[in-house]
Amino acid sequence: MLENYEQLNDAQIDVLKEIGNIGAGNAATALSLLLNEKVSISLPKVRLTDFDTAISALGGTEAMTVGVLVNFSGEANGIIMFLLDMEDAKSITNILVQEDGHEDELNELKLSAIQEIGNILGSSYINSISALTGLSIGISIPYTAIDMAGALMSVPIIEFGAVGDKVMFIEENFSSDTHSLISHIVMFAEIDTLKTMMERLGI
Amino acid sequence: MSELLTVGISDYKTGRAPLVIVTYALGSCIGICLYDQVAKIGGLSHIMLPDSKMFTQSDINRMKFADTAIPDMLNVLCSMGADRRRITAKIAGGAQMFKVQEDSPLGMIGTRNTRSVKAVLSELRIPIVNEDTGADYGRTLYFDLQTGNVRVQSLNKTVVQL
Fold this sequence. Notes:
Chain A is α+β, with helices and mostly antiparallel strands. Chain A is built from six helices and eight strands. In chain A, a hairpin with a 4-residue loop joins strand 7 and strand 8. Chain B has a single domain (4-161), classed as CATH 3.30.1330.200. Helices cover 20% and strands 34% of the residues of chain B. Chain B contains two helices and ten strands, in the order E-E-E-E-E-H-E-H-E-E-E-E. In chain B, the strands form two sheets. In chain B, strands 1-3-8-9-10 form a five-stranded mixed β-sheet, with no helix packed on it. In chain B, strands 2-5-4-6-7 form a five-stranded mixed β-sheet, with helices on one face. In chain B, helix 1 packs parallel to helix 2.
C-alpha cells in the first residue's frame, strides 16, 4: 500500500521520470513558440531527497528566487511549482519583454511573462500526465512570488511533509542558441492521485 | 561572532549562551524560540505542520509537528537546567507565500501553523512575549542565547528585532 514517496519502487519512479521527460519535451516546444527560437532540453534529472538537500540544490536557502505555483485538480490533485533563479528570470524576461532601460528590474510586465512561462510549464506536465493515464485534470491560474528559495519551497515541502520525509523534484536545462537556463520543477501529487496514476498504468 | 548552530526543517536545536541558533528562510513553517532569561538556556524549533494526531503511523518525526516538537524541546531545556516557570516564547513565520484562494487548504497552512503553535504554548502555559507571523514573505531567524533577542531578516525588508 503506497503511503508516501519513499515507498515508490524503481518502476514507479521510472514512470514519474517519463512523465518528467514528456512534460519537459512539451514545455520546450511551447517555449520555442513563445521565444521564437529553437529551445532544446537536457534529459531531466528526477531527484528524491530530504527537505534540506532539496533546498540546497536550488542554490541555497536564502537565494532570491522566482516561484510560480499552479494547483491541479479533478481526477488528479496536487501542485506544481516552477522555480527559477533571479538571474535566469531576468535574462528570459529580457527576451520576452523588449523595452528600453530598467533591464535589471522585474516589473509587472516581466512578472506576468514569468507567470506565463510557469503556466506553460505547468500545463505541459499536466498534459503529459493526462495523456499517459487518461485522467481528466484541470489547472488553476498561476500564482507568482519572489522570495528566498527556502521560503518558497516550504509550500510544496509541507505537502510532501504531510505524507513523508522526502520531496521529489525535477531539474532540467533548457537551452537555445543564445540562452540557457536551469529550472526546477517540484510536482506534488496527492497519494491517492499517485496510486490512481500507477493503477492506470498497470504498475 | 558567537558560534552559530543551524536548525533545518522539522528539526530543533538547544543550547546555552553565548550560542546563536539560526534557522533560514521560514515560509509557511514556524520558528519557535523558547528561552530561560536567567539560566540563558534556549532552543529553536522549526515546525512545518500543526498537528501530529492526523497521522496513524507510529514512526512519525516528532520534530515536524507543533504539538510534539514544542513539548519535546521544552523537556530538553528543563533537563539542561532551565526553569520551566521562567520560560518564555517568541515565534515567527507562518506566511502565506502565494496569493492562492484564502479558503484553499494550501492558503491556510501558515495560519493553521500559527494557530496551532499558539494553542500548544497556551496549553503549556508558556507566554508569547513577541511574534512576527503571517504576511506573505520568508523570514530567517537568529536567536541569540546571550540576550534572548531574535533577529528576523527578510529580503528587501528592514530587520525586525523580537
